[in-house]
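[09:14] KT: can someone run the structure on this one? pasting the chain below
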Amino acid sequence: MYYKKNKYFFEKINAISVAKEFGTPLYVYSYNKIKKNVINFKNYFKSFNPLVCFSVKSNSNLSILKIIGKFGLGADVVSIGELMKVLKAGIKPNKIVFSGVGKNSKEIEYAIKKKILLINAESVEEIIEIEKIAKKRKEIVNIGIRLNPDTDAKTISKISTGKKEDKFGVSEKKLSEIINNYKSSKFIKIKCLSVHIGSQITSNKPYDMMLKVINRVINKIKFKFEYIDLGGGMGIEYEIKQKKLNYKNYCDSIKNFLKKNNSKIIFEPGRSIIGDAGILLTKVIYIKKTRNKNFVILDAAMNDLIRPALYNAKHRINPCDKKGKYEKKLHEFVGPICETSDSFLLTKKYKKLKPGEIMLIHDVGAYGMVLSSNYNLRPKPAEVLINGSKPIIIKKRQNIRDII
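[09:31] RB: done, structure tokens below
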């Protein structure tokens, strides 16, 4: 992804030509960037060869999942729909982990029937339901137990999942009770200790604290787990020169942990695999000039990309043709939806724009299309995958007549 003679190229294709061919708003993904991210992630931790289960909630496009599976990754799912989709994508059941606080009996039974690797339970009530279904089916089910380590990931509050006030996992005391009550069960095998403290983490401190908690808990309860599921949460560089996670330090911390705990590590990355492999192409509809700032009204809206409205997240926005003069005036990039929160970015200085120009919103591969909706009765965008100089539609644009 780069500029060449002021034009933005996505792999070997001019982004403007992609927008003209497929229309806007348009999600575009880079095959080679996904491949590179997978290879890098595996290389960071190759010294202990973890099972890497892609977090499907970050991007559930079937073609993307097939690529993920082709590169040897498993899947972390949180619903029966996601589970059905990864199986359709060809990901093997023995590489699938089922997470989530509210799995219903239908979802649990389907997961058991498909013989997936682990169901990561998050409450005593859920374990009771799993055992009940396993007993009815006369099967032994492998489960993990999610520990809430009461660790603050120092990330966006709405994507923090590891503090004691969050809904996820069980306390250390409750974990001990579960182990004692179910270690001799005829229908449940406790195989895994699972943790996940949040998302978009760029500091190593939360992970170091998490590993210390896990180590202390294991020593205290004296139970051997075949797997330790460390979740995901590794952040990406949404802003230029944003702090990055030091993967070498994280790897060293895990290796020290493994010296005392001989278990197989599971990771559940999503954003770090797909986040920076996607852009959203959008067109300028109007430039609404006011005394204090220019509102750049785009044809993409919060129904297409809700992260800025939902999390106050910032995504860089660039013109696909950067040639032109810049002006020192506030520019606010907004969508056409009838909400003040339908705003993407506020910047102090920007290129002089005109209606019809193609813009690109960066780093939308994760939690972009999956969180899109039909709010204001707007059809969802199309999705395109580019491999070198070949663009392929991997999801058609919704037809407004079909929605109506």
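[09:33] KT: thanks! The domain at 31-271 is CATH 3.20.20.10 (TIM Barrel).
[09:34] RB: yep, looked fine to me
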